[in-house]
Amino acid sequence: MSDNAEWCLIESDPGVFTELIRNFGVQGVQVEEIYSLDEDAFVNLNPVHGLIFLFKYRENEEFTGELDHENKNDIFFAQQVISNACATQAIINLLLNVENPDVTLGSELEDFKNFTSSFDPPNRGLCLSNSEHIRTMHNSFARQTLFELDIKNTGKDDNYHFVTYVPFKGRVYELDGLREAPIDHGPIPEGQNWIDIVRPVIQTRIQRFTTGEIHFNLMAAISDRRVKYQKELNELIESGMDTDDAAHDIYRLQTLISEEEDKWDRQRRENVRRRHNYVPFIVELMKCLAREEKLLPLVENVIFEHNRKEVMKQYEFV
Amino acid sequence: MSVMFASNPANGRPSNGNLFEFRAGQARLEPGSTPEKRKVVSDKTKGLVYIKQSQDQLMHFYWKNRETNQTDLDLIIFPGDTEFLKVKECPDGRLFMLKFKNTSDERRLFWLQDPSKDRDDEIHRKTNDLLNNPPPQIRTGARGGMSERPTTSNLLASLASQEEGNALSNMDQNQLMQLFSLIQSGTGGGAKDDKGGAVDETTGSSDPVPAQIATGPTGLGDPDRTTPAAPKKTRIPAQKLRYILESYEKRNGRPATFPADNPNFKHPQIDLADVLSKNNVDATIEANKDRLKQHLPNQPPISQDDAELAATVSTPQFRQAASLFGAALQTGQMGPVLEQFDVNQEAVAAAANGNLKDFAKKLTISETANKGQNETDAQINAEAEAEESNESALAGPSAKKGKTDDDDNMDLD
């Protein structure tokens, strides 16, 4: 079993989450950042398997909805044990409740789900934080801690909290690792998109924040678009239609697939760079600049510009 | 040249273009009877302090030797940068100090030589006033500097009038230091004190001049680093300052540099990402590909190729790493890390001091020394290779020289 093994902070970036999820073995999912809760924003996102809401945590914040202590629907809910793990925590709370044929959980997470199926929320949380494999996956996205130094730019990430919204068995739930139980936000009327139910809940919350000027972030777990477009494309091609419209659609879908693949490639590159220790590169670059006698003038320029700005700020124009 | 040292009516300006003048001799500090004390030793030479304003509104504090008629002292005074204080320890009340606040630790002592003490208060007040609240009008015809050497006022005047003249590069270190330290500190003031800016120095014994003055925390001998708590806006024309800075750049092809040996010089926090920006380093990266590529990430989908190298400096990940590294260096904690990177001891020491500019300097010295050696080595290697290929050309096209063992089994063309 594991000891006090550490969980590192990871960046809350859709590319990080998408790759993390895929590294767990999950198939059919990607994560997109959401900037608007309007209906049109969701046209290209549906079906949304869950939402992850990231915000700066405030103690004793009021909440709407009902605490579901009995957990009548047997939703998977793990309580948060380790704060640095909260991103992965929220993701797993989301994934283990998805019931959509597009999504395959993979053996790793299926095993975890089965193993903890009879546990209560605190114990599930404990199990998660003790899972060496999950922790390793999570940590592989940690920001490079280049050196153990006291730099005052930490504290930015402290107290950021993740909360999951997920549709489950016809109801909308909020899964907050710091609460004792899932929060039930009510039923999803027949034929309606669950987003319509969750939208006002989130909007109220956001409004509360903007008055207090709190930074927040919203991400959606959706079906893998490449898969979706590829399926459509295959159907089109197999249908053998030879019309202009069909050709146009084929072209459109191919473009969309290619865009998604470019995006995925870019996200993977960013993740590689996140993991990379740039200190050797930086030192070598500075040595090269020094050798070419450029380093000192560059530093002096920056100092000079800085001071010039200070002058302009502080001196009246006469 | 008009006669300078007639005693002037209190309310009129002297006709020679001086804004103000008074007879005064210089004095200096010498070690006193105990380590904490200093002794003021007055120079008997008859002199004259006179204050003039150059064409671009900068105030000059001059001291002239009345016996030789030479102006031996020419100080540029920026508003808010000095105080003209009465030295209280001096019982006859005629010892004054011109104290610099931001630009240096300089203190100049003067003892009044006017036979009558009637003007003493006015001298105190008016000197402070002129130095810290320069009149807005530029006085025409008043050319600063009695000697032929390029004084700052000459230089600035010539700049202002767009003449070709001595570049600002001829401004001496002190003058340049004053200018930029004022920019650096950004404080100042036009602080008007009803008492003429007199500040209580420490209590001390009251001996006749020369006086023993106890130096405590606010004593004469100590550099006093107090600056006004709230930076006030000064009345230096910013356009003028900007003009000076830009003229310097134009004339010298580079921005003016800061003298780093001024102890008052405060090093601002530099973002290393700004230093290592794409524009700044692209050429160097291109010229040093092989050295740098090996330090790139090497995990799919990234490989250590030219494309990644070219993209690196613009990526948010690199910029963040550079900023962090620069911040860490400037906290003085990067010494041990840099040691692991084969950086020479002097540069490591500079890093341990948190001084990025000094680090850059020391690294440059160390790397350019290496460059000399490497170039020599490269030269030797190049010549050796040239010789080898000559030999093989002579010997015939059979085996190629200098190849590795791997080539032994290759088919030769």
UniProtKB/TrEMBL annotation, chain A:
It catalyses: Thiol-dependent hydrolysis of ester, thioester, amide, peptide and isopeptide bonds formed by the C-terminal Gly of ubiquitin (a 76-residue protein attached to proteins as an intracellular targeting signal). Residues 6-223 form the UCH catalytic domain. The keyword Iron does not apply. Belongs to the peptidase C12 family. One of its GO terms (molecular function) is cysteine-type deubiquitinase activity. It comes from the Eukaryota. Pfam families: Peptidase_C12, UCH_C. The keyword Protease applies. The record marks D176 as: Important for enzyme activity. This is Ubiquitin carboxyl-terminal hydrolase. GO terms for biological process: protein deubiquitination; ubiquitin-dependent protein catabolic process. The lineage of its organism: Eukaryota, Metazoa, Ecdysozoa, Nematoda, Chromadorea. The active site is at C86 (nucleophile), H161 (proton donor). Keywords: Hydrolase, Protease, Thiol protease, Ubl conjugation pathway. It comes from Panagrellus redivivus (Microworm). InterPro entries: Papain-like_cys_pep_sf, Peptidase_C12_UCH, Peptidase_C12_UCH_sf, Ubiquitinyl_hydrolase_UCH37, UCH_C. GO terms for cellular component: cytoplasm. The record marks Q80 as: Transition state stabilizer. Its EC number is 3.4.19.12.
From TrEMBL, chain B:
InterPro entries: DEUBAD_dom (IPR044867), Rpn13/ADRM1 (IPR006773), Rpn13/ADRM1_Pru (IPR044868), Rpn13/ADRM1_Pru_sf (IPR038633), RPN13_DEUBAD (IPR032368), RPN13_DEUBAD_sf (IPR038108). Residues 263-373 form the DEUBAD domain. Residues 14-134 form the Pru domain. It is found in: Cytoplasm; Nucleus. It holds the Pfam family RPN13_C. Its main location: cytoplasm. Residues 126-150, 186-234, 368-413 are annotated as: Disordered. One of its GO terms (molecular function) is proteasome binding. Residues 368-379 have a biased composition (Polar residues). Keywords: Cytoplasm, Nucleus, Proteasome. GO terms for cellular component: cytoplasm; nucleus; proteasome regulatory particle, lid subcomplex. Belongs to the ADRM1 family. May function as a proteasomal ubiquitin receptor. May promote the deubiquitinating activity associated with the 26S proteasome. This is Proteasomal ubiquitin receptor ADRM1 homolog. It comes from Panagrellus redivivus (Microworm).
